[in-house]
Structures are given as C-alpha cells and as structure tokens.
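Table S2 (continued). Query chain:
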Amino acid sequence: MRRPRPAAGLSLAVIVAAGVMSGWGTGRATADPGPGGTLYVHGASRACSDSGTGTESRPFCTVQAAADVVEPGDTVRILGDSLSPYTEAVTLTRSGTGDAPITFSGAPLPASRFKAVLAAPASAPALTLKGVHDVRVESLTFSDEHGSDVVAVTGSDHVTLDGSTVENAAPTTPVTGTAIGVDGTSSDVTVSRNTLYPSTAYGVRVAPGAARVTVTTNMILTQQQGGIAVSGATDTDVTSNTLFAPCATAISLDGGSSGVVENNVATTLDSPMQTRICQAPTAPLYTVSADSTGRITADYNVAAHEGASATPARTPYSWAGTPYATSAEFRDATGQGTHDIDGINGYPTTPTEHSPLIDSADATAPGELGTDLNGLPRVDDLLVDNTGTGTGHSDRGALERQDTLTIAAGDVPTPPKGLAPLGISLKTDATSSWGAALTYSADFGDGSTPATGTPGTPVTHTYATPGRYTTRLTFTEPDGTHAEKSYVGVTAGTAAPPAAALSVAPDTADGQTAAGYARFTVPAPADAWEVASRTLSFGDGTQENLADGAEQTTHQYPAPGTYTATLTQTDLLGRTTTATTTFRAADAFIPVTPRYDTEKTIAAHGVLKLSAATLGADSNGVDAAQLQLVTSNAKASGALTLYPHGTTRPGTAGITFEPGRTATAETTVKVTPTGAVDVYNGSSGAVTVDVATVGLQSHAQYADTYHPATPARLLDTRTGTGGVHAPVAGGHSVTLAVGGTHGVPAGATAVVLDVTATTTKASGSLTVSTHGTSGSSVSGPFWTTGQTASAQVVIPLKDGKIVLRNGSKAAANLVADLAGWYGTTANGSEFLPVTPVRVLKAARIAAHATLKLKVTGAHGVPATGVTAADLNLTVSAPAGNGYLVAHPDGTARPGVYSLSFTKGHTAADRALTKVGADGEIDLYNAGSVPVNVSADLLGGYLVFPAS
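Corresponding output:
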C-alpha cells in the first residue's frame, strides 16, 4: 500500500428576470392543513416508496401515488426542486368536503428553500383535476417545455389554484397549450396569485359552460394567443390581474360570457416575440364581443404601453367589435370604464410612488383579495389620495405598493462585545417613506421581555450571562406594515478566553505507517461559541484554517525532521490562546527485491552519479536508499564514499577494497535533495562497482517499521545451531527459518542478518536468497582460502525462511546472526536519515577490549527515543585476524559476528545495531591484536511513534 500526499426599454427577457428577482409568483400558502393527516412525496429520497403510506421518513416517490390514496382533510406535501422534477401526468379523482378539503402543496419545508417542480409531459397536462370538489392546489412550480396544457380542471367544482408558477422561456414557434384551463363542466373555481410565464398560447382559459370562475391577482406574461380568455362562461370575474401582452389580447370575453372585469393592468411591450411569433400585433388589450357586452361590467382597468410616446402602440379596447383608442372614447361610447386609466408608460409591476395605480382600485370588486400576488397586504399609501371605491386601499393590478421603512445604519448595539455582565445601548432610529407613525420592539435574544417604545429614544440592556446573542429590532406602523433588522453577534464574553488543545499522531493503515504524514486532533473547546477563528500552523511554513467544533486534519510533511505545530485560537473579543505539539517526521521501510542493474567502472578519484530512477528512489517521499555494493577489478586499495548528489563529499567509507579481491557491503545513503547519489572512488586506481537497491525509506508512503533485536545466533553449522551440524558443501545450500523464531514474527517482511563464512577450504562467496521466490537474493561475504568473512544483509521474507548458498568449490561453515527485522508498526521504529558523518576515527581498541560509542544527541540523531543506529564500521589494516561485536551498551555481550577482519586487509561493512538505554553502542574487539576502528553514522531509528 502506497500513499501519495494525501427600467425603461427593457427586453422581455429582462422583464421576466426582474419578475423572478422581485418575487413574482412566489406565492404564499394561506390555508392551514385540514383536520386530516399529511402525506409526503419526495421522489429524490432514497427511502421513497409508492407502496408505503407516505410518511415523512418513507415518502411516496410519485405525486400520483399520493393522489390515489388522499382522503378529505389530508394535505399532500410535495418536496423537491428543479434538479429532480416530477415528470408525471397526475390525475386527481378524489375529493374533499367543505369542512375538510384536500390540499396539494409544493411549499417547501422550513429547512428547504425550494418548491417542488412538476414537469408537464408532452402527452397530457402535468395536473388534471377530474370530477373533484373541495380541492386546493398551492405553491407548486410547473415546468413546461412543450407548450402544451399544464393544469386542467375538468368536471370539477369548489377548486382553488393559488400561488403556483408555470415557468419556461417564451417559445420560438407557435404553440397551442393553456397554462391553466377550466372546462365547461366546471364551476366555482378560483385561479389566484399565480405567475404564468410565456410557455403556452393562453395563460388562463375558461371554456363555454363554466360558471362562477374567479381569476384574480395573477401575473401573466406574454402569451401568444391570449392572457385570460373567457368564452361562454357565466358569472366569471376577472379582477386585479397584471398582464404583459406583446402579441394577443390581454383579457377577452366572448360567447355570451357574463361577469366583472375590474382593477386589471395590461400593457403592450416592444418585445423580441413581435419579430418571432407575432410580427405585427394589432389585437386590443381588452376585448368583449357583442354577445357578451350586455352581461359584462368593466371598470378600474389600466391600459399601458412600453414606448416613450403617449400614443399607445395598439388599440386598448374592442367593445362589441368597435375599437376605442382611449379610455375616454370607450367611456363616452359604452358607459363602461368610468374609472379606467390609459396613456401610462412603463411596466405593470409594483407601482412606483405617486403612480395613479395606487389606492385607486375598486376594493369591492368580486374576487378582490386582501393580499397581493406576494401575500402582502393591501395598504393605504399616505402620499396618495384615495380615489378608489370601498373601504380598502387596493392598488390596481396584482402587486401592491408597500411603505418603505428605513432603519438607520447606525442603529447597532454599542458596544458590540465585552465581558459579561455587558451593558449595551441600541439606537431606535427609523423612518417611514409615507410618514407613518412607528413603534419599535427590541428583542435582545436572551429570553428577556422585548423592550418597546417610540423610535428616536435609545434603549439599554444588560447581558448578565456570557454568550453570543442576536438582537432583533422591529418597527411597525398602524396598518401592520413592519420592517426588522437583526444584529448577529453581540458577545458577552467569559472572564478567560477558551483554552486551546492540540495533539498529533502519525497516520497508520493496515499495520503500516506513513511516517511523515501527521494526523492532528483538535478537540472542541469549552465555550466554543466564543471562538472566532482557529489556525493550525504546521511548523513547515504552511497552515490551515480550522472549522468550529472538534476537528481532525492531516498534513504531509516535506521531509524528515522535528516540527512544532501551533494552534492559534482567537475568540470574539480578540483574545488568543495557543497550543503546541511536536511531530517528528521520519521514514518507513519499503523492502525492494534486489536487482544488480548498475555495474560501472569508476576511475581513480572519479565520481559515479546514480540517478533516483536508477536506484528506484523516484517514488513518493523517498529520503534514503539501502544499497548493496560489490566491488571487483580494483587496481589499487581504497574505499568508496556515497553521499547525496549536490552536497559536500564527507570523509566516510561505504565499502573498502583492494586488488585481487571481491568485496561486498551494504550501506544506507540519503537521496535528497535531488534524489541522486554520488559514488566517489577514493583509490589511486580504477574499480568496478555493482549496485543493488535492497530497500527504500519514505516519509510519504505506507510502509514498515524496524524492530531492532538483541543480537542472537540463528545458525552455526559448527555447533548445530539452526539444525545443521556440518559444513555446507561447495555449491550447496541450507534453508534457515527466521520468521517465528527469536522474536521475529511469521509476518515479518524483511530481516537484517550478519552472515559469516568460516573454516573455508577454498575461495568463494555466500549468496542469501528469499525462500519461496526466485530472483530475490543478495551477495554475502566473499572470501579467500582460510579466511573468515562476514557481511550484514537485508533480505525480503515471503514465508519466513531464507536460503544461504555456499558459492565456493569447497565446504565452509556458515553462521547467521539476527540484527533485527521489518514489519508492522507495533513496537517498531522509524528511520531518520542523516548526512553521512564520521563519528569515530581510527580509535584503537585493544585485544579483547570494549569501546563505548555515543551515537545519540548529535549529527541529527535525537538524544532520546533512539532504538538503533545505522553505522558503517571499518577496521584498518589489522595486525591479526579477528572480528568485532557491536551490541547495545548495558547488555551482555552476545556471541555474534558484526565485522570480521583478516591480517593486513582493511575490512568495512554496515552495522545496523541496537542502541543501549544510554544512547551508546559497545564495540568489542574479539581479536588477539589491537585494531584501529572507524565508524560512520548514516541515520538513527526512533521508537514509533516518535515524539
């Protein structure tokens, strides 16, 4: 598993958009749910089911499912939005009663901002009310892309269609549908406060035979063939509607229709539709045919036009087939329209202040509502004389001009914050554009009784308890018009700022760790309401802003090292508290199947550059590579020094060599900052080197930790340790179980061994391989006849076993000593690479004497928490044969080989050695002559998780 870091002249489109912005057709449910229950429809819910009972937790998926089972008094709540419309042809055949009507509502629940959308299919209306009575449909949005019928009322009575919207842009080709249609067998139908956009041919159409139909307070925009068309319907009242009519008649009645047409506002428009659909519109705004004029009362209507000219673009009236160019002509000739208004330029939206439409309607007109299209009350504009009829103060059209209440900008709680108990003062300055007398109510948000009074006098209040409060100031005029302003965030602070807390741990997964990937935990502070912001600085120059409450966040550090992360917490009063924690980013080990794919000859004092790709070290977050070096064909004695490319060459040795001998050694080298490694030949002669990568250390990949072991002998063919009690013949192998013994678990992924060949009868070499797989092997020591030779190797494990092969022609005794193993994170150690440095230089160790070597607290290795040191040991030209034993100080010296040496021949090898509790390693000279020993430090292992 690998983890990478983790106005005038507006076009139709503008007018429609302005209608949306001003809230046209948003509707407002005015009826409470009936005495029955509530059925829910929510097609986007994963829990929906049409076979259920329509509960809120298990709603119906389709509207039809609810329509099939709804009972008198029930309310069907249809939930959803435009992203998940209901594309259905819903037919309702079930009725309510006068006391218990059926209601279908698309009004959103409090937690939602969207009304449900019913999309009309091409084949049938989106909603058909068929043979029903006592039914109310409210606050639905209908989407019509086909220009066909949208809502159809057939054979039904006592039906109300209120506060809904039929949307979609104006079609570019002729269409024939009707947004809301009432057939000739229906009666007592109210069509109120709906907004109908130009997707159909007709807005509202009432068919011959219908009776007692009321069409009131609707906004109807730009239909192709008619806004409101009534034919042969009796007692039909068309009241207080606002219509845009660029093409056809806004309101027409024919076929012997009877009723009242009052308080309507219709306007012509210079619209793009005139060039696409109705190239030369000539139809009058208001038309009543000869067979209906004797049965229609028309008054208080308005004919407006868009153009700047006082002359309308189209004839306002047609009465019994005769056109009339002005309201005066119409009044004088017919006796109708006594209070009509014409010659208005502009748009029939909310009337502008001082408009003749204000307070000039007939408040007693049949079907006149007490609220406008948006549910706002009909109010008395104090700046305009009341010229209408009745006791109300209705404006003409669907929208009522409201008073503008202005709350002074300086009316804010002062001071807005401080320590509890906190006394504040709040100004109460507000004005009415109509000059109405105002009162105020100040709710301080802490449960206390609101303060009331007359604007202009400041009000004071004391917050006794710490908290953050919202103050709400409401101004009201006598007719109920009101405005309010809320001030969020009056802070009465605690005596001390909330304390900050922070902790960190390395990220782990499946027993492995990404040792440079930190997981920070920030608990929710006490008095969390008081915290304004929290910023976590990671200590590497980056930071993150944290959300409120308990928080966990992760961070990938760029390189191994010790980082101090700081949480800075600022409260609403500007006070800060901090918390810090230290994270030691390190490396975890990735075993690599060894491949000897780099064999190069390096000239005397030459440098060989090994790229990151060559070493396999170009994967994510690799900081060091563990390499095995094999030298041959040396022309002179010397040593190879390995170090990161682009850095100063250190005075260290990775391997020593001499003419006529093949040598092998493992070593660890940092690969940063470029990812490449330089190999320097310190000899006066050329040498050939073969390089294999046996492992990588990464801070950004999930990988293994190291488990240093107390040195222990696993195999000695001289004594029978390990199950073999005889020299291993030339060309033969011995299999050694490592996993499951001496504390190495069966699931270990790699093992570190010191392997030795002794009592050799001929020159040769030792190969160590992974059992159960092919192509995974490393070279052990090379020897000459009679020589004891040792080497430390890292070898991957598959089934817990390894194979040692004697590559000599003659028998030799083989020895294997355990140094440690790699595996899961529990009780393991993570690696911290350092720039190679010589920490011991030619120190003389007498025969059978011990030298203590301090490896912690310097050169980038911490003073505490170190479990093992990665060293290269060198014995220079010894005067006799022998070997060194490296072991943790303070422990009994084990009987193992760490580095064997032969008289006159310099020997060097890696020694990955466990460290004593005091940070020291003991180097024991097991030979019979004094030797000079050097030690190079390559890195340290730290207990996991490091802190």
